[in-house]
Structure formats: structure tokens, C-alpha cells
Design brief:
Elements (H helix, E strand, L loop, with lengths): L13 H5 L7 H4 L4 E9 L10 E6 L2 E6 L5 E7 L8 E7 L7 E7 L2 H5 L16 E4 L5 E3 L2 E2 L12
Parallel strand pairs: 1-8, 1-9, 6-7
Antiparallel strand pairs: 1-4, 2-3, 2-5, 5-6, 7-8
């Protein structure tokens, strides 16, 4: 009997290639009624990950984006869904992971987020890894993700 490897048994950039027709086009989606989230994803050595895929959910809205060669990404959310009291659920797919990792990105101020009852199990000094920071441009936020290391983003197990 010949065993054939499947995508969960091999390492490669399958997600960024196979899902490319389904990515959000952030430039065509952006308007004054939206906010834009940009950032980068890094590995444990603080090197950018060029072939990761992010999936974001805010309420009933969904967006999928890929990272570029420098690990950067950009996604657009409806303004009413991403205000100071909300967050987006995030799945990250990438080479080397057999399953995606699950995290959240919060929009708002760090003190308000620290009082969120859903985050009681997260050490206070680590909650900042879930916070999107307001950028200089109007309606823009920045959020970097670290897969491993001292700056590792908080990931959740379900």
C-alpha cells in the first residue's frame, strides 16, 4: 500500500496559493465608513512570514487576506462593526501549522480591554498583544502578530 501525503501531513504554502481567489481586495473595499487594519506577522526569530493567511470575523462580516513577501497584510472592516467596544475573531493559517491558530484583535483602549471578562484567564501584561493600535491616518489601526517568542501573541484553545 502506498501512502500519499495530505496537506495536513506536509509543510508548504498551500493556503496562500489555494485560497488566493477568495481574498478581500482591501483597496476596493475601503471607504469613509470603514476602518483599515494593517500589520505584519513574524516567526519566533522576528522574521516576517510571507505566506500566511488571516481570516477575520466581526459580527456577521468575514474577510480573508494573505500576507505579502514582507509578512504584511491589510484588511478592511465595516466601521460600525469595529468600534471601541468590539473585536474581530482571527484564524491564522500558515506553513508548519497542522491546524490554524485562533486569536482576537481588539479595537479600543487597553484599560477597557483589560476589564473584559472574557480575558480573565489572560495575564494582564499579555493582553496588549491583542490590541490594535490607532494609526496616524483616519480610521486606520495597526496590529502585528508574533507566532512565538517573547512577544508572542495570545492564542486561544477551543
Amino acid at each position: 500500500m502506498k501512502l500519499t501525503p495530505t496537506s495536513s501531513q506536509t509543510v508548504g504554502p498551500f493556503f496562500s496559493i489555494g485560497l488566493s481567489p477568495l481574498y478581500q481586495n482591501a483597496t476596493s473595499e475601503s471607504s469613509d465608513k470603514t476602518i483599515t487594519l494593517t500589520g505584519k506577522i513574524f516567526d519566533g526569530n522576528h522574521q516576517p512570514i510571507p505566506d500566511a493567511v488571516f481570516e477575520f470575523w466581526t459580527g456577521d462580516k468575514f474577510a480573508r487576506v494573505a500576507t505579502s513577501e514582507d509578512g504584511s497584510y491589510s484588511v478592511v472592516f465595516d466601521h460600525s462593526r469595529a468600534n471601541s467596544a468590539t473585536f474581530a475573531e482571527v484564524l491564522i493559517f500558515m506553513r508548519g501549522l497542522l491546524k490554524p491558530v485562533h486569536t482576537r484583535v481588539y479595537f479600543g483602549d487597553l484599560d477597557a480591554i483589560k476589564r473584559n471578562p472574557e480575558l480573565k484567564a489572560v495575564p494582564g501584561e499579555r493582553i496588549g498583544t491583542l490590541l490594535a493600535r490607532k494609526a496616524a491616518a483616519a480610521n486606520c489601526y495597526s496590529w502585528d502578530v508574533f507566532i512565538q517568542g517573547d512577544s508572542e501573541t495570545v492564542f486561544f484553545h477551543f
